[in-house]
């Protein structure tokens, strides 16, 4: 009988340890604690920059854009001459976002990505020209992590070199 109780106790301890390990994978760090605190206290959810111990925030958000700027709608004509130029800023999730632009957006003619290749072909519907200028669609045409100045000088020449003079849009 005592042997059986030891087995049950061992099974419970193993189950507890397994549950703790799974919890660490599902919710690492203090996120789970924060979720529980927000559920119990509605005032804590109001300010995400307030520390749990009520100390002053080390990070104070400053926005340079008005609400109108952030909510404005931009019409993009994929069948026309519009071009999206993706400026990749390092360490901001740009690689993931650039990959998302070529692989996950639902389009009439989606980008063609071949297995084993980083560069995809993103043509306009019914045309052989690209609508997206990024490292995942045109490669490193303007250099690795080209900044704003490099892109403004490089993009028009790269795009225009691929078109006949009469087909180039006015800029």
From TrEMBL:
Keywords: Glycoprotein, Membrane, Signal, Signal-anchor, Transferase, Transmembrane, Transmembrane helix. GO terms for cellular component: membrane. This is Heparan-sulfate 6-O-sulfotransferase. The gene is Hs6st2. Its main location: membrane. Its EC number is 2.8.2.-. It is an enzyme of class 2 (transferase). It catalyses: alpha-D-glucosaminyl-[heparan sulfate](n) + 3'-phosphoadenylyl sulfate = 6-sulfo-alpha-D-glucosaminyl-[heparan sulfate](n) + adenosine 3',5'-bisphosphate + H(+). Residues 1-24 form the signal peptide. Gene3D superfamilies: P-loop containing nucleotide triphosphate hydrolases.
């Amino acid at each position: 009988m005592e042997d059986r109780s030891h087995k049950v106790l061992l099974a419970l301890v193993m189950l507890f340890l397994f549950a703790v390990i799974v919890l660490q994978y599902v919710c690492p760090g203090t996120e789970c604690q924060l979720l529980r605190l927000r559920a119990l206290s509605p005032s804590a959810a109001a300010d995400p920059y307030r520390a749990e111990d009520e100390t002053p925030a080390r990070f104070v958000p400053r926005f340079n854009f008005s609400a109108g700027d952030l909510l404005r709608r931009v019409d993009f004509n994929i069948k026309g001459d519009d071009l999206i130029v993706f400026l990749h800023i390092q360490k901001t999730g740009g690689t993931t976002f650039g990959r998302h632009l070529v692989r996950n957006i639902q389009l009439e003619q989606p980008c063609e990505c071949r297995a084993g290749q980083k560069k995809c072909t993103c043509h306009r519907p019914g045309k052989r020209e690209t609508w997206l200028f990024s490292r995942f669609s045109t490669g490193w045409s303007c250099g690795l992590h080209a900044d704003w100045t490099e892109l403004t000088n490089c993009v028009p020449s790269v795009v225009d070199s691929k078109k006949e003079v009469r087909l180039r849009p006015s800029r």
